[in-house]
Design brief:
Layout lengths: L8 E6 L5 H10 L12 E3 L5 E6 L4 H6 L5 E5 H7 L3 E6 L5 E8 L14 E4 L2 H10 L5 E4 L7 H4 L4 E6 L3 H5 L2 E10 L1 E6 L5 H22 E9 L3 H7 L7 E4 L5 E9 L3 H11 L2 E7 L6
Parallel strand pairs: 1-3, 1-4, 7-8, 7-9
Antiparallel strand pairs: 2-3, 4-11, 5-11, 6-9, 6-10, 12-14, 12-15, 13-14
The structure holds adenosine-5'-triphosphate and magnesium ion.
The site of magnesium ion has 3 residues, from loops.
């Protein structure tokens, strides 16, 4: 095995947890070739001057701030909670979750004002403190390092502030959400100064790859047939990334159109296209978009 090469970029990712799988997928999709294994502390990359380091997610903000590593992928929630002096470069569109306030199902607490003077268990003390302070609600925060959802049952607290994505952990522990503190997703962060000229140059290349993967995820490639005379209408419905590719069909007066549609307005757009007379609509995923 090769050792760490000091001239290379160092990217810290979560060693084992909720972000690990999707982070690795994202890096592989970006064309970085490396093997991940649970036993390893870091991986060398075959085709890019970067080393991937596997760390506890809580440690990553500090390591990036201090320049022990150059780059990191963590949840935005850790930026809100720890407020490290780092640069956020990109939202990565996975690892979605929210920090929420929850109470036992049978609790009399209905709204956050009812939490006045109560004990609240959390591993997000700063985010919680800020939230209640801004609303002028006095609470007693009990700081714990994990498994907050069990503390009401243990009698340690009347409520918790914890991360939740689908709400299934809350449900399982007979808790219900009272209010959301904030939303979070995975983010790509960098040390503020760092960077030799070489590292700067390769960070630019890495960003281009990451953005390519991200925009591909947001778009679908669409092919359809339509009568030629509705083309102006189609152009209005599909603003597109660029102007559509148009080819004549054997069927007189008909054309084939190829374009790119944004994921978030995808169904709306398809319905509109069908309604005005497009047919034979084929949708394909896009691997990368480089503009
Ligand atoms: P580590 O051992 O690395 O300290 P951890 O227990 O602190 O792990 P995980 O529970 O694996 O962390 O969560 C890592 C990140 O995943 C969170 O900080 C958050 O950004 C994100 N995440 C996504 N969905 C959820 C969820 N349902 N619950 C908790 N975190 C989530
Ligand atoms: Mg952690």
């Amino acid at each position: 095995m090769n050792g760490l090469n000091n001239g290379n970029l160092k990217l810290a990712i979560q060693k084992e947890g909720r972000l690990t799988g999707e982070t690795l997928d994202f890096l592989w999709k970006s064309g970085l070739e490396f093997e991940a294994s649970k036993q390893k502390l870091f991986s060398n990359c075959r085709n890019f001057p970067i080393e991937i380091l596997y760390l506890r997610d809580n440690d990553i903000p500090k390591y990036v701030e201090e320049g022990i590593v150059d780059l990191g992928i963590i949840g935005q929630n850790l930026l809100y909670e720890k407020r490290p002096q780092v640069k956020k470069l990109l939202n990565l569109r996975f690892g979605f979750c929210s920090l929420v306030i929850a109470v036992p199902d049978d609790s009399p607490i209905k709204k956050i004002q009812d939490l006045k003077y109560s004990k609240i268990a959390t591993s997000y003390p700063l985010s919680s403190k800020k939230f209640f302070k801004e609303r002028n609600i006095q609470v007693e925060l009990v700081e714990i390092s994990g498994s907050a959802e069990i503390s009401p049952a243990l009698g340690v607290a009347q409520a918790i502030v914890d991360l939740s994505s689908t709400g299934s952990t809350l449900l399982l522990n007979e808790l219900r959400m009272v209010e959301k503190v904030y939303d979070s997703e995975a983010v790509f962060i960098a040390n503020k100064q760092l960077f030799t000229q070489r590292k700067k140059q390769f960070l630019e290349k890495l960003l281009l790859r990451f953005k390519g993967v991200l925009s591909a995820k947001n778009y679908k490639y669409v092919m359809m047939n339509a009568p030629e005379n509705i083309l102006p209408e189609i152009k209005k419905i599909v603003p597109g990334l660029k102007s559509p590719t148009i080819a004549p069909l054997v069927k007189v007066g008909w054309i084939s159109i190829q374009t790119v549609i944004k994921e978030d307005i995808f169904w709306e757009t398809i319905e509109k296209l069908k309604k005005i007379g497009a047919s034979g609509i084929i949708v394909l995923p896009i691997e990368k978009i480089i503009t």
